[in-house]
């Protein structure tokens, strides 16, 4: 959905970096009110980077998802809650199996209200005692977002067996079970 298509719809955008973008689409995609989830690159200094360029760590980008959502059906706070439950917010070197600067976590805010909510949710998570280490997920202003190559879009639907194998082997599912699911 282009920005022109968004105008007048009442839809808003949320942008999150949570490591491998393949693993960040499905958790958002199934919620009522989520219009689209696009895998892409943001936060860097090169226009229209490729996957190979981003993975090289030289462009400053992170893998991210940009969510278009209807705030009358799902609140930004709910999206934040979903985001935190998909990542290890204490890892400054990447996420799970994926290491390096392009796999760091971040919340990219589009409005002052999103910034306020993101900062409050980060502070609440730190104060909760759920994690022993500091929460290192950055909160940054949103900038240009470049959709990833087509083969990365909706990967969990296109390649479900590969997706499930990768997600499980990466350590993400075990981490989520250990830190978020009821004991």
TrEMBL record:
Entry keyword Transmembrane: no
InterPro entries: Met_Sox_Rdtase_MsrA_dom (IPR002569), Met_Sox_Rdtase_MsrA_sf (IPR036509)
GO terms for MF: peptide-methionine (S)-S-oxide reductase activity
Pfam families per UniProt: PMSR
Domain Peptide methionine sulphoxide reductase MsrA span(s) in chain numbering: 14-164
Reaction catalysis annotation: L-methionyl-[protein] + [thioredoxin]-disulfide + H2O = L-methionyl-(S)-S-oxide-[protein] + [thioredoxin]-dithiol; [thioredoxin]-disulfide + L-methionine + H2O = L-methionine (S)-S-oxide + [thioredoxin]-dithiol
EC numbers: 1.8.4.11
Keywords, ordered alphabetically: Oxidoreductase
Active site feature: 20
Record-annotated membrane-spanning stretches: none
Entry superkingdom: Bacteria
Role played: Has an important function as a repair enzyme for proteins that have been inactivated by oxidation. Catalyzes the reversible oxidation-reduction of methionine sulfoxide in proteins to methionine.
Family in the record: Belongs to the MsrA Met sulfoxide reductase family.
Name of this protein: Peptide methionine sulfoxide reductase MsrA
Organism (species): Alicyclobacillus mali (ex Roth et al. 2021)
Lineage: Bacteria, Bacillati, Bacillota, Bacilli, Bacillales
């Amino acid at each position: 959905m282009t920005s022109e298509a968004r105008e007048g719809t009442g839809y808003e955008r949320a942008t999150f970096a949570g490591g491998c973008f393949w693993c960040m689409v499905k958790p958002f995609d199934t919620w009522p009110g989520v219009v689209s989830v696009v895998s892409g690159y943001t936060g860097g200094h090169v226009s229209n980077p490729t996957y190979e360029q981003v993975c090289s760590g030289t462009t400053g980008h992170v893998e991210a998802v940009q969510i278009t959502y209807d705030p009358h059906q799902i609140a930004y706070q709910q999206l934040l809650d979903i985001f935190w439950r998909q990542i290890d917010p204490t890892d400054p070197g990447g996420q799970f199996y994926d290491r390096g600067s392009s796999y760091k976590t971040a919340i990219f805010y589009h409005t002052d209200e999103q910034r306020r909510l993101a900062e409050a949710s980060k502070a609440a998570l730190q104060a909760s005692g759920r994690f022993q280490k500091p929460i290192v997920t950055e909160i940054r202003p949103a900038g240009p977002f470049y959709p990833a190559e087509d083969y990365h879009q909706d990967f969990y639907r296109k390649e479900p067996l590969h997706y499930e194998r990768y997600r499980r082997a990466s350590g993400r599912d075990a981490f989520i079970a250990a830190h978020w699911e009821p004991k």
